[in-house]
Specification:
2 copies of one chain form a homodimer.
Chain A: H1 2-9, H2 14-34, H3 47-58, H4 68-71, H5 74-89, H6 91-101, H7 108-118, H8 126-151, H9 159-174, H10 193-207, H11 210-224, H12 233-257, H13 267-284, H14 296-308, H15 321-335, E1 342-343, E2 346-347, H16 350-377, H17 382-393, H18 408-423, H19 425-432
The structure holds potassium ion (K) (2 copies).
Residues 60-62, 176-178, 283-285, 395-397 of chain A line the site of one potassium ion (K).
Chain lengths: 451, 451
């Protein structure tokens, strides 16, 4: 019994354990993709490249220092798909499932772990929630794989190739991984609106957040039996922000490139290019064109969108949509002279407002620092670096093509950003955070002059 | 009487009146510098150039679309020096002085105006304060002008030229205006450590904030008669931040350019180059070298320093040192799990913490938006644009040389940034702010997931 007590007394916070789990996942993934069987014959790479690929896969970012198509064997592709699945749906979700399969009861400590990973702040039906997430996800991915597999028979010579491509594309899109085994993302489907539409739907499904999906499911269930269902404030804010960013993103991309990339394109070409390149910044990271063709302003708009990222409790990264929305609402309320932040006939908790600002500030410092360091260590134009940093922190995976040419310092910075982006700034802060202290003493308050 | 009542009922807030005063100052300045007598013969410029120069002078930024040395006559130089004085010490300070000279009592409304301009949050001795500020400032400037004037006899052929240069240099440095009539900032003094030291002292004097200067004065007075004097929390925070930024800035500038600009330079050359180019980003805007020679990382560090800017209630702009410091302290406290922000044995008011984050967020949105717009309207490398935007918002006036070549859109964006940078984000928000509402109704609180 002594040993168990000692183990308990280590008192790792749940966030620290999550981080540890991610670390283990990265290590295992690095070993798996480093197996000779995972690579095509004759392909060599460094340990740093393997770690980079593993972090990129576990965090479902999709930035790559090596071409996935040229490097991985068919077995390697399946291993990669498994890692994406694992990283995308969340290590904890899968962990729960494994516990359930083993018939073990989920204890308080494990439940706490899951809650932190998916940011759910209520205990109710947690195990059930995890099951639902996994079932829903696998269902959508299978449907996506079948539709794309059948459709890809037009594109690829053999049915094996078509279904392998369809399977990987579906998993990569639903988990918002942004990896591709076509060798050129979705550029070959630039004029295939069917493939793009399927991809947009899968991308939105992964990035909109699990709580939203589950509430939509509950809404449908309630609706069937004639009951009313109130969506949570969280779902309302995150969904509105998600689609607003999507539309504004597409408009800005079109506006800033109307006399450049969109010159001479038909309205439907322009619509799909702008829409897809906006959707993909939420978290997808797939692209139907070479983003380095865009103008600098568009690239900056995309960087900003990637920095904001996806919904909380989704497969995505960045500061998250709610964080951005709440900061905006707070600024608006403040400027209007209001003492509380009101939205959708609810009031926000001041602590959530403070949290949002802390998350944004730390994220800006982190990304700003990374840009300065990379400007020093790399030899690329500034916008290439900003774009790469935003993409890594948003775990988006779009790139203007500099990833394979990064120096070792550059690769390590990007690895750190992908990691922090995926676990979230909030968890990142928790790593260094001890127990919340009870403020045993107080000092007098004193006001200072601001701004 | 009816008319007076109607006038009162317009109910402009004091910040809106301040903004109005600045607008009037800009208009009058534009007219003054547009007078034919202010220009050298044969020099032509557009109205936009005149407005740009007027805003740059009133906000003591120092960005110029025309060369001050080539454009202004001797009378023009004196007009410009007067505008810098007026803008630097604050329209309200000078306004108070005029009121006093006219023998009028200062009423509550006027006092409120002054308080907002200088951000003082106590009523005591306000008129006295203004007098002290003005006296102190003029004294320092006269001393600076005499020292530099005498010293410049070594540099300029006639004593008139030497003292005109000395006078303008002293006013430009003390008001942190960053204008020069040498035609090349302080580059000709790159190896003259005496001129640089005098300039550094004048720059710090202007940028460190009036409350700090007055408290130092009070400290000395108390010390003489053997009493103890407690510096305010504000003075402690802003002074520490000011000098920390100064030192860290110099170190980072040296570090990122040690194999570029500083290559082959002696230790004292390196020290003065790094130190001066760090001090000048607080708000000075003078330079002893062409900043476009620096590496990209150094330019970004400088941009960041300019964005942070000077102390509140100083001649400077940006988000202000206290804002930056309080956000950092809050993040640190938050990460450590503390419920209050403690510093120098005092606790910060949660409202000041929120204010800081609001100011920083709005500033980032404003500058980020400006960078995106300028990337679209101008044809310069991104770092040139970021540098110019940070310089305008920080009312610093450093430039990599693109100011005269800006498009009309570009000039208008920079004008807006200089204006907002000088009045401060907080006042900027107040423009759209009505009266603080008493929250007549409440909604239920609901928590959401952040980050
Ligand atoms: K991704
Ligand atoms: K300046």
């Amino acid at each position: 019994m002594f040993k168990f007590d000692r183990f308990n007394s280590i008192k790792l916070t749940s966030v620290q354990i999550i981080v540890l789990f991610y670390m283990i996942a990265v290590t295992v993934s690095t070993i798996l993709i480093s197996l000779p069987i995972a690579r095509k014959p004759g392909v060599e790479w460094t340990l740093l490249d393997a770690v980079f690929t593993a972090v990129s896969a576990v965090s479902v970012t999709g930035l790559t220092v090596v071409s996935t198509a040229d490097t991985f064997s068919v077995i390697g592709v399946f291993i990669l798909a498994f890692i994406l699945q694992f990283g995308g749906i969340g290590i904890m979700t899968l962990g729960t499932f494994i516990w359930l399969m083993l018939g073990r009861k989920i204890g308080f400590r494990e439940r706490q772990l899951i809650m932190t990973d998916q940011n759910r702040n209520t205990f109710a039906g947690l195990v059930d929630l995890m099951k639902q997430i996994l079932k829903l996800f696998l269902l959508i991915e299978v449907i996506g794989a079948i539709i794309l597999g059948i459709y890809f028979l037009n594109y690829f010579p053999t049915w094996q190739e078509a279904f392998l491509q369809g399977f990987f594309a579906s998993v990569s899109a639903a988990t918002n991984a942004g990896f591709d085994i076509t060798g050129e993302s979705l550029v070959m489907f630039a004029n295939d609106y069917f493939v793009q539409t399927i991809n947009i739907l899968l991308l939105i499904f992964g990035a909109i957040g699990f709580p939203v999906l589950l509430e939509i499911k509950e809404f449908i269930q309630h609706h069937k039996i004639g009951e009313t269902f109130r969506f949570s404030l969280f779902t309302k804010i995150t969904t509105c922000t998600f689609f607003t960013l999507l539309v504004i993103g597409a408009i800005l991309i079109y506006y800033f490139d109307r006399e450049n990339f969109f010159l001479g394109k038909t309205w439907h070409e322009s619509l799909f290019y702008a829409l897809f390149q906006s959707v993909t910044t939420r978290n997808g990271g797939l692209a139907t064109m070479d983003v380095s063709q865009f103008s600098g302003s568009t690239q900056m708009v995309q960087s900003l969108l990637m920095f904001i990222g996806a919904s909380p409790s989704s497969v995505g990264g960045g500061i998250r949509t709610t964080t951005f929305a709440i900061a905006l609402l707070a600024i608006f309320s403040f400027a209007r002279g209001r003492q509380t932040v009101k939205v959708f006939k609810r009031e926000l908790d001041p602590e959530d407002v403070l949290k949002s600002f802390v998350v944004i500030s730390v994220a800006i410092m982190l990304c700003g620092g990374a840009v300065i360091v990379l400007s020093h260590s790399e030899n690329f134009p500034l916008i290439y670096i900003i774009y790469e940093v935003a993409s890594a922190f948003g775990t988006t995976g779009l790139s203007m093509g500099i990833t394979p040419e990064l120096s070792n310092t550059g690769k390590m910075v990007i690895i750190l950003l992908m990691f922090v982006g995926r676990i979230g700034i909030f968890s990142f802060l928790f790593i260094i955070r001890g127990k919340i202290s009870k403020d045993p003493y107080h000092y007098p308050k004193e006001r200072v002059i601001i701004g």
